Amino acid sequence: MSETTPAAETAAPHRYTAQLAAEIEGRWQDFWDTHGTFAAPNPSGDLDADPDLAARPKKFIMDMFPYPSGAGLHVGHPLGYIATDVYARYQRMTGHNVLHTLGFDAFGLPAEQYAVQTGTHPRVSTEANIVTMRAQLRRLGLGHDKRRSFATIDPDYYRWTQWIFLQIYDSWYDKAADRARPIADLVAQFADGTRATPDGRPWAELTPAEQSDVLGTHRLAYAAESPVNWCPGLGTVLANEEVTAEGRSERGNYPVFKANLRQWMMRITAYADRLLADLDALDWPEAIKLQQRNWIGRSEGARVDFPVHTVDGAPGEHAVTVFTTRQDTLFGATYMVLAPEHDLVDAIVPAGWPAGIPEVWTGGHATPAAAVAAYRKQAASKSDVERQAEAKDKTGVFTGAYAVNPVTGEPVPVFIADYVLMGYGTGAIMAVPAHDSRDFAFARAFELPMRCVVRPTDGRGEDPATWDDAFASYDAEIVNSANDTVSLNGLGVTEAKTAITAWLTERDIGHGTVNYRLRDWLFSRQRYWGEPFPIVYDEDGVPHALPDSMLPVELPEVDDYSPRTFDPDDADTSPETPLSRNADWVTVELDLGDGPRTYRRETNTMPNWAGSCWYELRYLDPFNSQALVDPAVESYWMGPREGQPAGGVDLYVGGAEHAVLHLLYARFWHKVLYDLGHISSFEPFHKLYNQGMIQAYVYRDARGIAVPAAEVTEDGAGTYHYQGEKVSRLLGKMGKSLKNAVTPDEICAEYGADTLRLYEMAMGPLDVSRPWDTRAVVGQYRLLQRLWRNVVDETTGEVTVSDAEPDEQTLRALHKAIDGVRGDLADLRFNTAIAKITELNNHLTKSGAPVPRAVAEQLVLLIAPLAPHIAEELWSRLGHPTSVAHADFPVADPELAQDPAVTCVVQVKGKVKARLEVPPAIADADLEALALADPAVVTALGGAAVRKVIVRAPKLVNIVV
RNA sequence: GCCCCGGUAGCCCAGCGGAAGAGGCAGUGCUCUCAAACAGCAUCCAGCGUGGGUUCGAAUCCCACCCGGGGUACCA
């Protein structure tokens, strides 16, 4: 955009230019800060300031916690922040006490990696980034309650993160009560014998270490040896949720390996059912609910024991338990598969191959043990990518052992194969090749028998030998499924499941069960830049929780905070925690109640999800030093109420990429705190909204390298050039590396923050992704210029509004706009709200006359949530001494919002033949008579008999002949 | 493979059972200007991805398919 020339400035010295916008915006931002315009009062406590405001209905509006990136913001980042700000401002103007603020999620890998790259201490670089980001966001005019902003790295904040960890650590899940309870209750049960210890000895006879181990199997936060995702390239272990389907780290895209390590875990699985069930009460996008449901992966089925005998051993020596959702097909189970890592494999492998087995079963090995060892080695060396790529080609090997199908009594061979996963169900399956496509593929590859036990409904016949794939439908009848004591023949799938489950239960062979895909949450990381655990170990290695008085456990200053990383492909490495290098800090003398003793600190740190698991609660009461949140304050802002049975934040806006990770973890912590009586809501976020992405064109040269988008030229024929060379164009993400980033700072400088806000909101619906187009920004700038001109004389700077009464047409346009804008803003349809404001403003511009004051003021109020700076300025120039932020939003007069006459379309056989101007309240009968009497209609009918008349007063009459 | 979301003027998008268009960008012409930019005024532009169906009537509802985006993936 070109500079305003001196000539133009002379002609219109008071025009709304970027310079004027910048001046106005800076001035009002200062005003808001000075006057605490957006400070939301609490009903009690140290933020209790304004009882009148606190008496209003509340709205708690939140954005997802950003991490303060060192790279700076591009225009895509603030999209959600602007949207929540517009919504919050609208709610504030419609009589609500609105809490809206923004803090920073400043621990974790991104902040640490940035710090490592730039060679500065994470705290220094992170705090500098926060300062930069705060300045960038301030420029947008966001109405945040800045008193309530904090960062997760503030010791005052992570003191409570640690406190919550201890609450979780000191809790267990009481299945009978279906809630978490203090671990002390469990200790009491063990102590008084209500609950037996695992080995039956009295509780008091267990050593402290043994007691600690027993409690560890119940605690909601526990340390355990388990197979975890070890990422040498990052030097840390990762949660399942942080590993992509390709078996790489979500951050950095490094290979991830399975390793058995002692790590902290969170028993989120205890909450699987509630996390699933409570989704129903939430106002979330269905897609996100679906992703959470899939992640939790509840499936109903049965566990069935298959006795296994080896050729050498006695029958029934071992039993392999399988999990199946198709217990109705048990008669069709013709072989079994164990995961290669299954711990029963070694116990059942015989010394030699049984006689007469097909050659493919042995994998060419001389003994079962050799075959198993070779297959295990091969399976372990395969990356998940390879495993996935080869998913269609089933591999495996016979263990040499046979199990007994408990309903048919037939021996079934037991295989190991990597298509059965150790981590799901029991790590063992019964294979029903006729009715499961994976088993079918395996059976074909290994010449295994199939038995049809569900009659196909697609006419393929009952001989699986002739089939191309398994028949897996549920909507069919069971056949070939009977023994001496039970018959499923003729039953449907559902009835058969019930019947066979009852039969299995009666004989103690199996039972109905529910299985979850969800696993416990790996909670420790080998990082410096995270919350330290408030845990120390004594000389016996028994963990001890630190008392409240010793919190926070602050991160020590260290010289070397870098993670120890390794060759990304070297699986034979193990993590080293940066904190362990600091002996002075690790070894500590404490008095935990039995005199001063020497302890060793936990040197893992918490994952970056920890700080974002509960921040919504701290916004409510950020300075409380006695509790994480005052219960009265929590209940005021988040408590359950009409339409929000679980309570929670009224509106939570953020990207869909957090569908599982953050949202699941935060819900889990919230429920624990609820169970322990600290809060009254049992869901953190009532309404969730996912904003779309702002995309941008990526231009690449012949080598495929991105070229600066700003310097690409377009010719008429839709081809693009950079420095004379043809380049390709593709819609993608916006970012520095793609050389297509546009920053809010440059748009603000060019047009002002109000224009940027309007443009981002006008581009399209909030939840849809759309491409950024810098050229189009000027449209919103023009709107603001016209608005300005409708109130202020560009030459003199005088307010030009008249005291005349508005004419009827203008009044109607105004009330129609008010009516529409209210609905649109309340429903986050900012794009259409802006269109309606533009329409009204254009109407006033076209009329040419000075705008009546009454109309100008209402117009300013209408646009105030969207373009708050210009609204404040005009509001002030119109003579109002107070901020527009708490002014009342206009209310439409329903009479005026409706047109006095509407055009009614008269159709004959669906074709428009006449138009009538009728009052909107006209009765159906009157309208029909009017239509039938219309000369054009009479002509069109040509005397034909009228069969039917459809009347949709007042807009349409359709005559069928 | 499966599951979501979306395909309406050159572009971004309204309309979501009843005359295809709310708003914006770009284009074109004109006004202002010495000229240009800015600004203003006017104007051009689609038959709603494709094919079926339901209906008096479909961009809107249903089915199938195509294209684009996202998610997920041997979960027994």
UniProtKB/TrEMBL annotation:
Residues that hold ATP according to the record: K736
Primary site of residence: cytoplasm
Compartments, record wording: Cytoplasm
Sequence ranges assigned to domain Leucyl-tRNA synthetase editing in this UniProt record: 293-504
EC number(s) given by UniProt: 6.1.1.4
Matches recorded under PROSITE patterns: AA_TRNA_LIGASE_I
InterPro entries: aa-tRNA-synth_I_CS, Leu-tRNA-ligase, Leu_tRNA-synth_edit, M/V/L/I-tRNA-synth_anticd-bd, Methionyl/Leucyl_tRNA_Synth, Rossmann-like_a/b/a_fold, tRNAsynth_Ia_anticodon-bd, Val/Leu/Ile-tRNA-synth_edit
Domain called Methionyl/Leucyl tRNA synthetase: residue spans: 64-169
UniProt-recorded Gene Ontology molecular function terms: leucine-tRNA ligase activity
Key word GTP-binding present: no
Keyword Ligase belongs to the record: yes
UniProt motif ('KMSKS' region) ranges: 733-737
Region (Disordered) residue spans: 560-580
Keyword terms of this UniProt record: Aminoacyl-tRNA synthetase, ATP-binding, Cytoplasm, Ligase, Nucleotide-binding, Protein biosynthesis
Enzyme class: ligase
Classification via NCBIfam families: leuS_bact
PANTHER family: LEUCINE--TRNA LIGASE, MITOCHONDRIAL (PTHR43740:SF2), LEUCYL-TRNA SYNTHETASE (PTHR43740)
Family: Belongs to the class-I aminoacyl-tRNA synthetase family.
The protein's name: Leucine--tRNA ligase
Organism: Actinacidiphila epipremni
Source organism phylogeny: Bacteria, Bacillati, Actinomycetota, Actinomycetes, Kitasatosporales
Gene name as annotated: leuS
